[in-house]
Write a structure and sequence with these properties.
Blueprint (H helix, E strand, L loop, with lengths): L1 H32 L5 E4 L9 E4 L4 H15 L12 E2 L14 E2 L25 E6 L21 H14 L8 E8 L2 H7 L2 E4 L3 E3 L16 E5 L7 E9 L11 E8 L1
Parallel strand pairs: 2-11, 3-4
Antiparallel strand pairs: 1-5, 5-9, 6-8, 6-10, 7-9, 10-11
The structure holds 2-acetamido-2-deoxy-beta-D-glucopyranose (NAG) (2 copies).
The site of one 2-acetamido-2-deoxy-beta-D-glucopyranose has 5 residues, from loops.
């Protein structure tokens, strides 16, 4: 009898330990795979450890690296997409049906500020450069969109105004509000002064039509071009870009990318 009790106790303890281990493993896997979008900027510097975009706008041999890098990055978006028939034009905020093999087109040739023909403004004396923002292709993730009552106080005013204005004009369900918003700003007070006006194209974020990100070869990651209209020359400017949705936690480092700009 005593022996049977002991065995029962041992089995009981073993089961508890096993349950703890299994729970721990499940939690660890969940955390490790917790999807959120990584913001990525292009052109990336030649040194992979660096996040500094540094060039002299009147030295063509130096700016060619950045221009070529953007040319390469934008190649998959060039029109027409050869024989790929599953790339279609999507309406604002409307992804293709999940069971279709369609993906949404991304058009860059009519983005007047940030195109190859303008050297992405890397050769302009006062204006530029243009950088591009995109997201990584991995996570199957969909933004939880903000509306006027859930919008955080710290979101930039122009985004707040844009969301409220569109909600009043077109209603809370409007597809114009299904956007993963992005913003770029100087990090410190001096950076905020030096960065100058920032122009986003084709809009203030990534259209909801591109979500969820799918692992299809033809899937084109959405783009936002960011044109620095008149950043101060000859100083280093710390810049932080953020993606905004309810399910992105900036305080945990999600949806933020940092780089520095220095134009001689
Ligand atoms: C930028 O390049 C031009 C032409 O090569 C040169 O004259 C000028 O001194 C350079 N500026 C700086 C700050 O290096
Ligand atoms: C905003 O979204 C929340 C949930 O995300 C919802 O409960 C609320 O009704 C929405 N507000 C408006 C004005 O639609």
């Amino acid at each position: 009898m005593k022996r049977a009790k002991l065995i029962a106790l041992i089995i009981f303890i073993a089961v508890i330990i096993l349950a703890c281990v299994v729970t721990g493993v499940i939690v660890a896997i969940r955390n490790a795979r917790k999807p959120y979008p990584h913001l990525i900027f292009e052109p990336q510097p030649p040194d992979t450890e660096s996040t500094l975009i540094w060039y002299n706008s009147s030295d063509a041999s130096g700016t060619s690296y950045w221009i070529n890098r953007l040319d390469q990055f934008l190649k998959p978006y060039s029109n027409p997409h050869e024989s790929k028939t599953n790339i279609v034009e999507c309406n604002r905020g409307r992804p293709p049906k999940a069971d279709s093999n369609l993906v949404c087109d991304v058009k860059i040739y009519d983005w007047s500020f940030c195109i190859h023909d303008q050297a992405y403004h890397f050769n302009s004396f006062r204006a530029g450069p243009c950088i591009y923002l995109t997201i990584d292709k991995n996570p199957e993730w969909t933004p939880d969109y903000y509306n006027s009552s859930t919008i955080p106080d710290i979101i930039p005013d122009y985004l707040k105004d844009f969301i409220i204005y569109n909600e009043i004009r077109l209603g809370t369900d409007s597809d114009t509000l299904k956007v993963l918003w992005v913003s770029c700003a100087g990090e410190n007070p001096t950076d905020m002064e030096n960065i100058g006006p920032v122009v986003y194209s084709p809009m203030f974020g990534f259209d909801g039509a591109y979500f969820p990100v799918v692992n299809k070869e033809e899937y084109l990651r959405p783009l936002v071009s960011v044109f620095f209209e008149r950043p101060k020359r000859g100083v280093l400017i710390n810049i932080e870009c953020k993606a905004w949705a309810k399910n992105i936690k900036h305080e945990e480092g999600e949806g933020i990318v940092h780089f520095e700009l220095m134009v001689d």
